Write the structure tokens for this entry.
Amino acid sequence: MGDKVSVSTDRRYQLTRKVKISTAAENDTLHLEDVLDHANTGRDLDGDKGYVDGEREQRLKAQGWRVHIQRKAQKGKPLSACQERRNTRIARVRARVEHVFATLTQMGGKLLRCIGLDRATFQLTGKAAVYNLRRLCSLKACGVVAF
């Protein structure tokens, strides 16, 4: 049995804003709206190819989000050069989220010595909080004072 971690990360400071932990059996795309932080002043949503869903995109746009989800090629029909450039622009922003997961991996990753989703949620949320504290120390050392 495993767990999945979905996070929402601040683009500017790379701080984790929201975390959603679920069982590995659940699809990642179900957690997109759970990790969206409506208090965030940045309304850009950058997602990978797995989140492509026209109905969801329309719903999020109606809620005021600027949706930037990578496109995936159809079978036998490759992406155009324009779509490839768009995917690359989105991937650069999404790479910041991968830094969060890399740091969580350095802290032991998702390896937990517990049974149950509640305990896993507690431990993984704690790791995300420790990540934010480490990131805050790093930002302070770089001279970033006001948030």
Remarks:
- Residues 3-139 form one domain.
- The mean pLDDT is 86.
- The first strand starts at residue 3 and ends at 9.
